């Protein structure tokens, strides 16, 4: 029996309703991507098909796509890679030819994804995207026009990949494949639907690595207090419950960062997904934590480009330069090896007062922790990792993946410093917060379990030594 039924509900479109009662951690959906594209900064570092990160990859000279193995290359060839090779060949045959401008592997990620979706649909003569929400009628005329231009580019490249120069003279199979998906209006809606339905694929550490279209997962709506979370195993999505869910209840995910002021999150949901999210009591509470710690009454926008206003939170736009400018400033301080000073200024100085629960402070602590690790400054890395964990605890619900991953990272640093009791505590927090989290991250889970047993042994050895000395 399927785990959920799809139903349309007023004001929510299609919804996934639980077909039975689920315990926490149960899988409600496991699905391979219909199509996936690596984000630009991951190209050349990961396999284009399996998304595996490897030092040595096989690189295709015509398209620049990289693969972990011949098997992955073959699987990609069947899905999309052969078509992209055909496009490369078509481009190279006619010098100066403009097959829809830049090649699809250079397009922006959402458009590249739309092209791969379309290409696979043409091959199998299916259009599963016709059911996806695109919010077409809510787009402005100029947005619709842009989508139609992008759709025409996708169709030009599709024709090139099928070897079609003139539809009348094309081979019958190629013509039928093309005609199966060639409605410009439908393709424009497909392009629009990518903005609403593409999922950001993350690796074991929750780093964003790719965009994927998952036809069944695209039915899951957003909730401010979701009962499910997604994780990714290569190009597969796994959706699990995070609490008990009763038969008939709607299964929902969080589309947006929940450790963010709801004003920012709700603005993004409206802008990208065209629906209004409402504050729940938990959201009010989280907002309170995020903002009250910051409410310095005499706060003013400052030279580093980030201001705080008790009503508006971090001033990211308008007169005050954006938060990114501030992060850039911090980057500059790192390169000057003054990043500890930058952290102090950002969190406690007279001009920056980002309180303990603030999302920007958390973002900074994470970035500074990563920077300290990359510079092998282990005691600073430890301090920032502790900061990250304490911010997580304030902001996120318990069992939220990012919280457990933060504990695992801190455990590593505590172990490195020989703090065995602290390591054990961190490992236990990591493992107990969301035990199911590690099922989709077997390598990382095993690492935490090994750290736990090593810390236990070391702590025992240390206590025996202490006893002998006495
Ligand atoms: C990925 S789709 C989810 C499935 C969608 N309901 C459908 O009919 O295909 C995202 C869209 O679902 C709708 N949606 C998701 N969460 C919602 C919510 N909490 N309230 C209202 N609409 C929501 C919005 O239209 C959003 O753009």
UniProtKB/TrEMBL annotation:
PROSITE patterns: SET. Gene3D superfamilies: 1.10.220.160, 6.10.140.2220, SET domain, Tetratricopeptide repeat domain. Pfam families: SET. InterPro entries: H3K4_H4K5_MeTrfase (IPR050869), SET_dom (IPR001214), SET_dom_sf (IPR046341), TPR-like_helical_dom_sf (IPR011990). Residues 2-256 form the SET domain. Transmembrane segments: none annotated. PANTHER family: EG:BACR7C10.4 PROTEIN (PTHR12197:SF251), HISTONE-LYSINE N-METHYLTRANSFERASE SMYD (PTHR12197). This is SET domain-containing protein.
